[in-house]
Amino acid sequence: MFSQCEILEDSKEQLKTIVREVCEPDNLPEQPELFELVQEYYQLATQKELAQEDGKRMAQMFELAVLDLQFDQCIDKVDQLISQSLQSSPSSGCSGLLSLEEFIYQVNAIAPQEMSMERFKDLAVKLNLSKKLIEQSISFKKSDYHTHLVCTTPFGNISVISWEPGQFSQIHVHEDKITIIRVYKGTLTHRFYDPVEHLHGKQGYRTKDEKKFIEGQLVCVGFHQTHQLANESQERLVTVHVRFFKQRLISCEPLENCEPDKSRPDLVDRRK
Questions:
Q1: CA separation, residue 1 to residues 63, 99, 105 (Å)
Q2: Using CA atoms, how far apart are residues 142 and 158, in angstroms rounded to an integer?
Q3: Of 86, 115, 142, 259, which alpha carbon lies 20 to 30 A from 268's?
Q4: How far is CA 101 from the centre of its chain?
Q5: Average pLDDT in the 155-167 region?
Q6: How far is CA 7 from the centre of its chain?
Q7: Cβ of 58: how many Cβ atoms within 10 Å?
Q8: 3-class SS of residue 154
Q9: Are 231 and 178 in contact (CB under 8 A)?
Q10: Backbone φ and ψ of 67, nearest 5°
């Protein structure tokens, strides 16, 4: 991969152009502070791995972008610039397996509005999570399936879910989220649903597709798809979930183990 310094030097004029394009329609004067922010964002976004302090700084920038329209527009344009640079680089290493850091770097380089199921799947398939990391994240609960959040990123998260026989998720809609699910151990029963309206206007679902997936196989769930996961076998099941959210996440810090909250089924639904 190209080094951060080389990218920054070659693209400095492009960053200045981005700031000018954003400010000119509103007849705003030159804003050196905005350019410094844009340059800092570019430096962070092109790092292969963010240190904890860098992750906090990136989160602060996303919070600022919510309040500052010009900065938000600049971020979108910088994301597009990084995406174009990455695609045109012959040494980007896209043909081989990706470490967790490389995966985060490459996904983060793609502008959210340009992400598709196929594009995210191509990267997720190459993600090479260490067996040790996955094994350390496995934890079964008799009461319900157990989710261990491996890491969060500005674009989504990665988690490991442990299922005892007979455990299942609620039927839920993904809305603005893509999830690539890999079966690590066991057999997963997966169903897609079509929404149907019952009498009295109540929402119901009709099974559209049902399949079983074994170790190493992938399930791909795209934007606005409705689905359910279940362990209908007699053996334990472990699945690895790699998620992309079209809406940027504010928090970039790893979280502790997550367990389904049965008193809030809506929260349980969003864990898949």
A1: 29, 13, 10
A2: 23
A3: 115
A4: 13
A5: 94
A6: 24
A7: 22
A8: coil
A9: no
A10: -95, -20
239-263 pLDDT, tens digit each: 999 999 887 544 444 433 344 433 3
Amino acid at residue number 193: Y
Residue ranges of the annotated binding site for Fe cation are 172, 174, 227
Residue positions forming the annotated binding site: 172, 174, 227
SS3 82: helix
Residue corresponding to tokens 């170790």: 215
pTM confidence score: 0.59
The burial of 85, by beta-carbon neighbours within 10 Å (0-12 exposed, 13-18 middle, 19 or more buried), is given as middle
Cα(252)–Cα(142) distance, integer angstroms: 30
Q: Which of 193, 190, 241 is nearest to 214 (CA)?
A: 190
Distance (Å, whole) CA 90 – CA 26: 38
Question: What are the phi and psi torsion angles at 58 (to 5°)?
Answer: -60, -40
Decide if 246 contacts 177 (C-beta within 8 A).
yes
- DSSP per position, 188-211: EEEEEEEEEE-GGG-EEEEEEEEE
Residues ≥6 apart with Cβ < 8 Å to 46: 4, 7, 8, 82, 105, 109
